[in-house]
Design brief:
Bound molecules: pyridoxal-5'-phosphate
Strand order of the largest sheet: 2-8-7-6-5-3-4
Structural class: alpha/beta
CATH class of the largest domain: Alpha Beta
Number of helices: 14
CATH superfamily of the largest domain: Type I PLP-dependent aspartate aminotransferase-like (Major domain)
Largest sheet: 7 strands, mixed
Number of strands: 13
Amino acid sequence: MSRFFDLISKPAREMGGLLPTPPKRAPADSQPRLIRLDSNENPYGPSPHAMEAMQSALTAANSYPDDDCTELRRKLAGIHEVQQEQVLVTAGSTALLSLLCQTMLAPGRNAVTSERSFLVYSMAVHASGAQLIETPMRDDGFDLAAILEAINEDTRLVFLANPNNPTGSMIDAAGVDKFIAEVPGHVVVVLDEAYYEFAVHFAARRNVEYSRSLNYVRQGASVIVLRTFSKAHGLAGLRVGYGLGPAELLAYCARMRDTFSVSSVALAAAVAGMDDHKHIDRVVSNNATEAQILGVGLSELGYHVAPTAANFLYCDVGEDASGIAGRLRNEGISVRPLGAWGAPNCIRVSIGRPEQNQIFLNAARKIAENSQQR
Ligand SMILES: Cc1ncc(COP(=O)(O)O)c(C=O)c1O
């Protein structure tokens, strides 16, 4: 074996890595303009207010950032009507997932989630030496009854991605209410709302009520709500997200944090960008319009598209999806084939700008026609 294999910890030995994402900049000669619809990023970029704040924060980049993220926490606490101690800002919401696992899990303990959900749950749980129990899905969404059933005395965390990545499914307010009421007291429920702004917009259009997640936080329930600036705010590259939950638990998580892990530039961008409702409204309403166009276009090719509450579509192409993804890549478009999620016939397509989506649909049409002729 290798030089360090016997020296590293058991979890490090047993961990698989996150699937490699294609390099951001393809070599100029091979693919001059790869359209990236594979990482659920915001195709409209950050708010101009955030851009301005970043520029000005750069001039103070010689100073360490405010480790308590005071200004951002104060603003978030005010907007969400919770105490400042009930807000923890981290370098992306995935950093808080890891902190929660390090704080609450250990060998012999477990966390529960659904199959075909966010891959980072598995990585964060296994890194803490604990076990992840994944329950089967129901209609491409979380089966909450199965999750309740899977909880045992060693369970400490449950992850509900709402909406779920990669299936785009949403659990409504009544569903979450019922679940929270039935979860045993020794379990903390993580409501991962990375796509919150998109979900709220879709829910309003569809006349359904999205999760009342902040109510649980205000009532002091054992619930952590995760939100991020990576998606609707278009700041994925800066790494800033946060959790809302019980002050005591977040204080334990904060002890485990790396010092100065949220940069001053990220903090400035988040503070300035969060009030730019015009930008966020434009992002979420364009997303909903384009979701409809893409959904219709893909259905016309005979593919099955699941209803989405997020900024991507889960699409069953009825054949090996890695082949389709490879052919799309040859056409200059990158999408995510979902074999590693146990859905070998499915791709996840992030919703891009209108012109990107048209190029994608044209390429998908050409590929579907070629497959029919073969
Ligand atoms: C369900 C879910 N949670 C969290 C995240 C990560 O967010 P962040 O960029 O804040 O780490 C993602 C990103 O794709 C996601 O799909």
